[in-house]
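We were asked to recover a plausible sequence for a given structure. The inputs and outputs are reproduced exactly as logged, with field labels preserved.

PROBLEM: sequence recovery
POSITIONS: 113
GIVEN STRUCTURE:
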């Protein structure tokens, strides 16, 4: 981040910075979007981590949410007696509020479960 700040300060006019970004061979820029899903499972497939609830890269929560999600899912699979449908439903119920708070601002309300 410090190198980005230093690079920005080297330009007196923001248009110079924009021109330099366009000419840089290693500069990449794209928009970020997030798809909100009603559920994280269908049949025998369940999503967790970035595949299911990718937080903003600026949040610093990606790895934490993925590890906790995997831990919760493993526990629910073990406790379900082999019924993946029950395990997935419990996983989604337990993770929804926690994941929502890690991927959204505190002003946003979690989805209904």
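RECOVERED SEQUENCE:
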């Amino acid at each position: 981040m410090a190198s980005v700040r230093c690079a920005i300060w080297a330009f007196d006019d923001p248009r110079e910075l924009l021109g330099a970004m366009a000419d840089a061979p290693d500069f990449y820029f794209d928009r970020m979007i997030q798809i909100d899903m009603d559920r994280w499972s269908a049949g025998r497939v369940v999503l967790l981590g970035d595949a299911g609830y990718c937080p903003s890269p600026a949040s610093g929560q990606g790895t934490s949410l993925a590890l906790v999600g995997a831990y919760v899912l493993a526990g629910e699979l073990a406790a379900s007696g082999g019924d993946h449908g029950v395990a997935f439903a419990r996983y989604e119920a337990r993770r929804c509020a926690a994941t929502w708070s890690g991927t959204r601002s505190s002003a946003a309300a979690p989805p209904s479960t």
